[in-house]
Amino acid sequence: MIKSLLRYAKNFSISLLFTGERKIVLKDFRRFSLGRKVINNQVINPWSDKTYNEEERSEALTKAVNWLLHSQNSMSDDGFGSYHIINKWTTSYVETSGYIIPTLLKYAKKEQKNDIIKKLIASGDWLVSIQKPSGGWQGECIADNRPEVVFNTGQVIRGLLDIYLYTNDKKYLESATRSCDWLCSIQENEGYWKKFAFRGVPRVYDSYVDAPLLQTYKITKNELYKEKARKNLHWIIDNKQLENGWFEDCDNTIKRNDRPILHTISYTIDGLLDCGLLLNDKRIIDAATKSADKLFELFSKNKYLNGRYDRNWEGSESIICTGSAQIAIIWIKLFKLTKNIQYLNAAMKMNDILILIQDRSVKESLNTLGAMPGSYPIWGRYEPFSFPNWATKYFADSLLLEKECLKEALELSK
Amino acid sequence: MKIGLTTYSFDNKDFREQLSSMLKNGIKPDYILLHYGGKFKYNKGFNFLRKTLKQQRFKSLPFLLSYKKNKPSAPAKFKLSESDSKEVDNYISLANIINAKGINAPYTINKIRSLGVTMIACNGGRLHSDVLNISTAVFLNVHASKLPMYRGMNNVEWALWEHNEIYGTIHKISIGIDEGDILYQEKIDTSNIELKTISDYRQYCFFKSNEMMGMAIKDYFDKKLSFTKQDAPRAPIAQYYIMHPILKEYLQKRLAQK
Lengths: 414, 258
Prior knowledge:
The structure holds two protein chains of two kinds.
Chain A: H1 2-17, H2 22-34, E1 37-39, E2 42-44, H3 54-73, E3 83-84, E4 88-89, H4 94-111, H5 114-129, H6 150-167, H7 170-186, H8 207-220, H9 223-239, H10 262-279, H11 282-302, E5 308-309, E6 315-316, E7 319-320, H12 321-338, H13 341-358, E8 375-376, E9 386-387, H14 389-413
Antiparallel strand pairs in A: 1-2, 3-4, 3-9, 5-6, 7-8
Chain B: E1 2-7, H1 13-24, E2 31-35, H2 45-56, H3 61-66, H4 82-94, E3 97-100, H5 106-114, E4 118-121, H6 129-132, E5 137-143, E6 151-152, H7 155-161, E7 167-172, E8 182-187, H8 198-221, E9 239-240, H9 245-257
């Protein structure tokens, strides 16, 4: 507790006294602490009635993409790093470099930006070059030189598959299948991953590993990938999902596993949903929908989602931007599936909040302009004073998907 | 059984239209519960000013200044005729007015209890469970959409978005949103009238729905109508929420092109 307070005090004072980003911290202080109103004993946050039009949404997307590209340019290799107000740029984060590729590739194809595609192929090459002999990819940043991790490996596969489908160059597929073989070889009999899992404990958010495993199965027709993914999915929904949709063993820490972060809850739901769709398995889709609907209910009631939720869906901690964007993505996917416009409507409102967070309206350097912070306010407990690249990635994904589905919704209502 | 209406202002459009429909159907309400805790929570005089300035942070000033004026003017075809409006005013001037500080205030609850068996058409303010649990009272709501299909907010908009017909519904107020038993439901014909904007549709549909109140109560007393349970699921995703402005904009464009 004292340690944590001291760290916060240090971060606050350094960010306010010695960094060029003091305006960002002050802005969040103004709008978060002073911008709130209390009406009829209810806290009304500044985003309650703030909405953005389509043009402003496109601008927000462009700014987010530009920041991701700037992140790549700031690295000594072709990966993507994150920016911390005090510690500045990290080295490339292997896992997220993998799953940023599909986001930027989608954007580049839509906007016909070949220069971005070239950079993404370079990123794919870099990922292939750092693959471990086992077939897996290391955890965290490249400079940390950690051993391979199951979850992180799954996310690199996502990027390589997309590059393979675009270039048709077999080396990316070979790299992906090598890692899938490794994932299959280390899965426990019960269906979960423990060896090479983050912190060595089985976690339900590995459903987000099952999805790329199944995508690889769709391309290679290797039945083992399908079998292993299905085994993990059944382990999750049969053993770890409560009746109310909440998941046990869902946090990426041991200490706070009783109230996982929205980020990992979203990984779990998204993984289940994608896998359910890939397998055309209603039971798995229903499991994902159950949790997504609970979060929909909480969002409709409170107008935002907390950073963490306990087993009774009691929220705590401030907004985690990544998780919020991920949930918006899940709702949009559910709109696509069910055609229930309320999912899209809620996702659009969530994106309004995220655009407001991104739109700081202060003079910023390229290191932060367009980036999504880990938490709102920026000193929130998740990735404090930091702009993790995955937050901006999911924010961009959400806006891209929203744009796509808005067209679909309009077609449906014509 | 006593009949009553609640409102936070005698200028409230819905209240006036419902009262007019009751009078037209030969129903003379026994009381009007004038509560100040509905849409804008305030007390009279100084307290009102102090609270409004503090809670609404000056945003309510325009409301404060326009309070005595009529509410947003509706196109002539969607509001009470002059003679109906006069009849309503005459009735209000003679009516038994119960003043209350809020619809959920303890005083209001005691007052409603003391009325005995009563049916109340409600306008403004969300009723809490303490009020809804008064066993001798039935609280009615006008809902300008089909139930149980369109529960929640912006229902006229959502029905238009989904190309569905708009209904007027009179139903019991329950703890769950728009989940109470239905007394009367009827389709609103919008084909014979020129409606170009969302606002047009809303005003017209609420006007027509409010008109149903008097007839529904009369038929209930004549034993021609009874309450019917809603059988739809209570899932939050089955509800409708405030429509995002981008969707509204598209809907507006579509209506204008029609």
